[in-house]
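subagent[fold] <- orchestrator: predict structure for attached chain, return tokens only, no commentary.
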Amino acid sequence: MKNTILAIGFLWTFIAYSQSGQELIDIVEGEHNKAEQLQDFQANQHTATYDLLSHKLQLEVDPAKHYIKGEVTSEFRVLENTDEIVFDLSDNLKVASVTTKGEHIAFTQENNELTITFTKGICENATETVTIAYEGTPNKNAGGDGFVTTTHNNTPSLYTLSEPYGSRDWWPCKQDLNDKIDQIDVIITAPKAYKAVSNGVILSEEENGNFVTTHWQHNYPIPSYLIGIAVTDYEVFSQTIKGDGYSFDIVNYVYPESRDKAEEYTKVTVDIMNLFQGLFGEYPFKDEKYGHAEFEYGGGMEHSTISFMGNFSRSLIAHELAHQWFGNKVTCDSWNDIWLNEGFATYLSGLVENHLDGEQDFINWKRGKIADITSSRNGSVYVQDEKLDNVGRIFSSRLSYNKGAMVIHMLRTKLGDDVFFQGIRNYLNDEELAYGYANTSQLQAHLEKTSGESLKEFFSDWIYGEGYPSYNVAWYQGDQREVSIKMNQEQSNRKVDYFEMNVPFLVIGIQGEEKLITLDNTFNGQEFTVAVDFEISDIILDPKYDLISKNNTIGIDIEAVAELEIKPSIENTANKTTLVSTKK
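subagent[fold] -> orchestrator:
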């Protein structure tokens, strides 16, 4: 009977992970697809001479036509004396004019760059404004990103998807992860049969004959890749979030044919929002809105205040909402640190699993993540420089998403909930990081400051290092009042000498007693003596799957028993000395 129950448990874990795993695959494939351009794009040093202050995008589009006409007004402050300013812009989009203070100025356009020349030059710290008029047929990218026209239910639809370098395919911008725009206006003119969606809040909607112009405004710092537009025959419904002295709406833009299911599936967003606000602080854009816009894509995209959604599964809703804190409020400052976006978004979807389905489902969730992580012996969470031209590595579900998520969970178990969540809130609210950029060392510094302990070894092993440990544990009970445990470890990759870790055990007594203990293992052959007040029948290593490991063994320390001249009874031999169980 025990084996039957165990088999059912394994089957349920497999089914549960297969479902959540497939949803993660869909998310990751979406991230991977929209990043294909990363292989062909190098950081543009020519755009590093100025600090963007604002953009006003005035766009004319029709979902039935793969074409865009625009006028973008950009305000910036120069960081050094210069007579040129460069924007990223696809050669497919032809610039008609560039003006400043009503006067035309010279420009050249080649190699996906727009270079604007100021005859009199610009002095350091001076502020200038330019207006760029352009139009053309945007690139059609195989990955389904950039500027996309398609259909749903035979109705034309249009959307943009710019992570990491698709913005230049539809407007003149600055694409690198080094300069957030302080404020944007997005003004979209489209046929009045459609609704136009973008970041922030609607200031106005004005009809003009057969067209309608929708003015969106977003007043938080934002990188170019998180600006998006979507246009089709959306239907709209909302939920409201109420906080302490504030409220904001979750506004859902969905296809007419999807509305019934979408209204049902998106209800959970309210619970998820309240969970995340309780753990990580107020929704970062509460003065505006949160929302979903349905689009024809596998997975989603976390545009600030408006996630574009390929479906409304709970895990996708959780993942994209989590990005509003991790990725949008605080953005990784290089693709080396992509785990700060994706690892946290993945882990927060696990917290939703725990919150709504209970601890056992969360244990199964962690178990599935560990199985995927340990399917290979190599690979670091941090993306090494030599891997930055490999999109598959940057958006690796095993490393950036799953291992990143489990390492975050291990930090939580190491530091304890109070310290961990306070440290994360401090990181998100740091004046130098909030609505700006952050890297791995800055997260580490905040957790160290909050906890008062060094995490250098942990980050070296688990973030920058590769692989995982395999434990060999031997125990014996020479006295009913205590248990002795000896620990050894092997590493799957030579780049880590030893995984110093707090290792959890569940000690089980012959009368069903239980005691959870955690041992700080720092070297091979380390021995521990732990007080217990019952006779032990079994010890389970990592009972709740809180630790990335594989091929662990645990059993009675026969040599220690022999030295004490303690011989287990025949009955206990079956349960102890011959039980060397492989847990993972």
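orchestrator: received. Logging for downstream: The chain has four domains: 2-33+330-464, 45-230, 234-270+283-311, 469-582. The first strand starts at residue 50 and ends at 62.
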